[in-house]
Design goal:
With about 200 residues, the chain is an alpha+beta fold. It has one domain: Glutaredoxin (3-Layer(aba) Sandwich). It is about 30% helix and about 20% strand. The protein contains six helices and nine strands; from the N terminus they run H-E-E-E-H-H-E-H-E-H-E-E-E-H-E. The strands form two sheets. It has a seven-stranded mixed sheet, covered by helices on one side. A hairpin with a 4-residue loop joins strand 1 and strand 2. It is globular and about 40 Å long. It starts with a helix and ends in a 5-residue tail after the last strand.
Length: about 200
């Protein structure tokens, strides 16, 4: 019994995404209605962005155009950008597929896909706790960055110009074949609105 419990705990710990380890594969339905798997993008750099349109910290980066610029710059360099919403039905940020399509069109998102994770399984697999919370996966499928978008832990868009953008820096280093100099930071923002 004790051995089984230890094994279960070990498996639960192993399930979380750790920097320097292979990123866990997953499959989610996109707002466009397609099944999207992380494994679809083998050999590419991938950004995972946990999002919630009702969160003031997410609104800071979308309302200012900061997130869209980062998405556009990254995807222009061949990076795959997956926006993931793990808000449960009835919780802040939960959107139907049609609502998500309208949102991404109205805010000018340049993400490769907007993925719906209503049961929160993928968010919990990755240990996502905040919105926005960011992950960068290199071409080898290794998680090389996890944490905040930048170093200004406020919902104020006026703080963006003076912020150090950790995701932009990580992408520049990964695309140049260099190790990520700041591989982990503490994400800030709203809590991910998982179901009970």
């Amino acid at each position: 019994m004790k051995t089984a419990l230890v094994l279960l705990i070990a498996l639960a710990l192993a399930a979380h995404a750790d920097v320097g380890q292979p990123a866990q594969n997953f499959t989610l339905k996109s707002a466009a209605g397609k099944d999207v798997s992380l494994s679809d993008f083998q050999g590419k750099v991938v950004v995972l962005e946990w999002t919630n349109s009702g969160c003031p910290f997410v609104q800071k980066h979308y309302g200012s155009g900061n997130m869209q610029k980062l998405q556009k710059d990254a995807t222009a360099k061949g990076v795959v950008w997956l926006s993931i919403c793990s808000s449960a039905p009835g919780k802040q940020g939960n959107l139907s597929a049609n609502e998500a399509i309208k949102l991404t069109a109205s805010n000018g998102s340049s993400a490769t896909a907007y993925l719906l994770d209503e049961n929160g399984k993928v968010g919990q697999l990755y240990g996502a706790k905040r919105t926005p919370e960011m992950y960068v996966i290199n071409k080898e499928g290794t998680l090389v960055y996890h944490g905040a978008i930048d170093d200004k832990k406020t919902p104020d868009p006026a703080d963006i110009p003076g912020a150090k953008n950790f995701v932009a820096a990580a992408l520049d280093e990964v695309l140049a074949g260099k190790p990520v100099s700041t591989p982990q930071t503490e994400a800030y923002g709203c809590s991910v609105k998982y179901g009970e």
